[in-house]
Structures are given as C-alpha cells and as structure tokens.
Design brief:
The complex is a heterodimer of chains A (112) and B (115).
Chain A (H helix, E strand, L loop, with lengths): L3 E4 L2 E5 L4 E7 L4 E9 L5 E8 L4 E4 L2 E6 L4 E6 L8 E9 L5 E3 L3 E6 L1
Parallel strand pairs in A: 2-11
Antiparallel strand pairs in A: 1-3, 3-8, 4-5, 4-9, 6-7, 7-8, 9-10, 9-11
Chain B lengths: L4 E3 L2 E4 L5 E6 L6 E7 L5 E8 L2 E4 L8 E4 L6 E5 L8 E8 L9 E2 L3 E5 L1
Parallel strand pairs in B: 2-11
Antiparallel strand pairs in B: 1-3, 3-8, 4-5, 4-9, 5-6, 7-8, 9-10, 9-11
Classes of the chains: A mainly beta (112), B mainly beta (115).
Chain lengths: 112, 115
C-alpha cells in the first residue's frame, strides 16, 4: 500500500527565503507525481506534474524534482512571498490504479 | 472552460438527513474521482467512476455512501442518514483518461457540516 509523507508539516519563514518542501513515497512504481496548493477553505490548485520518466519540472519560481528510485520529490520555491502562504500537497498516482495518494501536506507561512 | 464544478459549496444537514453532492467534470473529461478531507487530515480517495460505471470504490465506506455518474448530468455522491463524523470537505477531480498523463483537475469542493 502506497504511503506518502511530507516534511516538514509546517514551516514559517520570512519573505524572500528560498524553500525546500519534501515528499517521500514508499512504492516507487508510480505513474506520475503532482504538487498542489490548497488555500484555507478552498480547493486544490495544480502546481506541477512530473511523469515517472522525468526528473524535474519548473514553473516560474517553482521547481519540482523527482527521484523515483529513492521515493522522493522536492518542491523548491525561490524568493518566497507572503502570497505563497498555503498548504502544499504532494500526491502520487500508481501504475496499479487510478487514484491519487496524498501526503499530509506542508503548511507554509511566509511573513512580510 | 469552466473547470470542475462542484455544488453546493457548503451544505448543512441535520443528523439522519441525506446529503447529495454534485460534480460536473471538465468538458471532455469522462473520468471522475471523489476524495474526502476530514478536519485536520489529508485527502483520501473514495471512488472512481466513468460514465455509468463504478470502476474502483475501494475507499468508500461500506454503508450509507453511494456514487453514480449517469450518462447525462453530473456525478452524484450520496450520503444517507448523515452522522457528525461525515462532516468534511468532499472534492471531485476529473481527467480525460484513466491514469491520466495530464494529471487531475480538482473542483473547489463541497464542505459538509452535520449538526
């Protein structure tokens, strides 16, 4: 059974810092991995999608890497801003099924 | 393209009533997935449907919960005789294919409160 863990659970940083959010998964037989952002009381916004054959994806100040063999992904946020404050969720889609397995999320607070 | 539409956004039900949550997938998407987010917990898969078929319901509670995706109209998640523990945010996602290489698009969710 796939398990996804995100570390840290919460993070508070001053504006301008570069951040690394970590995601690990127990079953390396994944189809793809997706990073989402969730604002309080809101839905999920897809940030980056990495196919199992890829090693990284970039969008603006965000960069996500994938090391499938070691079961790890990182989300790098450059020059953080208060507007980046949200919960960041990592989710993997297995080859064996169609569902996403989510991590518990990292709650990020960027202070002005 | 209006994205994945869920309604209502908020739903309040008394214990014992029925809750019906609706999800309209993105245009061109024929695969729908329901997830539940309990307070202070992560999202958990409930059920995966294609038009008129339930493909995987391994995450659905065995009683009181059912889902459908008819040929016409939205997907419906139905919770009968709701209890306080059903209070949660219910999210729907859609994709154009199974095991979508494009990932999944989520709706804004329905927040169910059972009083």
């Amino acid at each position: 059974k796939q398990e996804v863990t995100q570390i840290p659970a919460a993070l508070s940083v001053p504006e301008g810092e570069n951040l690394v959010l970590n995601c690990s998964f127990t079953d390396s037989a994944i189809y793809n991995l997706q990073w989402f952002r969730q604002d309080p009381g809101k839905g999920l916004t897809s940030l980056l999608l990495i196919q199992s054959s890829q090693r990284e994806q970039t969008s603006g100040r965000l960069n996500a890497s994938l090391d499938k063999s070691s079961g790890r992904s990182t989300l790098y946020i450059a020059a953080s801003q208060p507007g980046d404050s949200a919960t960041y969720l990592c989710a993997v889609s297995n080859n064996a099924g169609n569902m996403l397995t989510f991590g518990g999320g990292t709650r990020l607070m960027v202070k002005p | 393209n209006a994205g994945v539409m869920q309604n209502p956004r908020h739903l309040v039900r008394r214990r014992g009533q029925e809750a019906r949550l609706r999800c309209s997938p993105m245009k061109g998407h024929s695969h729908v997935y329901w997830y539940r987010q309990l307070p202070e917990e992560g999202l958990k898969f409930m059920v995966y449907l294609q038009k008129e078929n339930i493909i995987d319901e391994s995450g659905m509670p065995k009683e009181r919960f059912s889902a459908e995706f008819p040929k016409e109209g939205p997907s419906i998640l139905r919770i009968q005789q709701v209890v306080r523990g059903d209070s949660a945010a219910y999210f729907c996602a859609s994709s154009p294919l199974d095991r979508s290489p494009y990932g999944y698009t989520f709706g804004s969710g329905t927040r169910l409160t059972v009083v």
